[in-house]
Amino acid sequence: MGNEHAISLRDIKIGAYTSLLSVCQDGYSLSGVPVPGFDTSEVIARVNECQPLTSADGSFESEILTTVFNIGLKRGEAEPLWITPNSIRHRRYIPLEKSKKEVLVTQLSPDEYTLHRQFAGLSSKDEKNILNFVNKYGLLKRHSVHNLVFKKRDTGQQVHLGESLLWWQEEISDLATCLELWDMVSSDDKELKDIVLWHRDGIALKLDNSYIHLVSRTNMNLLSRWHKGDLKGPALYYLSLELDKRLLNTLTPRMLALRNCEVYFFPDTLLSAIWLMFLLEISGRTRLLPCVICGEYFHTQDPRARFCSARCRMRNYRSAQKLKGRKKVKGGKKI
Known about the structure:
Blueprint: E1 23-24, E2 28-31, H1 40-50, H2 60-73, E3 82-85, E4 90-91, E5 96-99, E6 102-105, H3 110-113, H4 115-121, H5 127-137, E7 150-151, E8 158-159, E9 163-164, H6 165-186, E10 196-199, E11 202-207, E12 210-215, H7 232-247, E13 251-256, E14 262-267, H8 270-283, E15 288-290, E16 297-299, H9 310-330
Helix pairs in contact: 4-6, 4-8, 6-7
């Protein structure tokens, strides 16, 4: 069947503000319970009272139960930690703002283009760095169950449900693994041959010391898509499966009446915005390069760009001047 009616990703207008609407004005803290002042059994009872979480059938409710509760409680040998809002007060991004006589849409900022790189970079950071990310962008998912209001017994202060730190760390690790694979593909890394393994019964990927059977006897027909020993094709296919899984039912089209009724697609949660930014990089919609000075990724359409900011450009200039001065001294010339 032809795809003459398909819409190119380059033709889709992407907005980010709806996924960044809820950031706690009073910041976030690490807590031993999902809601400070309540034990876990009380929290689950309250959530079940307002929105029952009983099954593991892949439904909306069971997803929340899995990500918020089960993952946070599955390690019995250590006390789990939770990222909890300090209040119910939230600051909001302004989706529409006036500039002179034009009505402009808050679109992706330079920071948001690299959202997935920032998130994956937390894999080598500690809890403090994760908390800094949360304080800037908010929680990963803002489902209705998060909007339950809990009142602290001692102070009467109102707070919302938090998210499991362990779950955050697992999501960070998953994206970091995919980004590492993508970097190997895009840079023709020779180590890719140790990741994509062709064998008699199909293709397997070795990721984080575990094997993923990408092609086996059940879907052997996929082998005809690549020549024997191809490494990039299977790797990109695996990334496409991960992106499909992460972005399923997470983008919402919206018509912006104040911008000539243009249609934008908005990610519904911060987590979907993060994976969407990864999709945009793989598709070539964005071009991210590492700064030669600080190593941070930045968005640019100029392949010759080397610095993420004027500050790093000046640091490079000063370093070059110092090196030039040392060479003159070494050569016996007066400066």
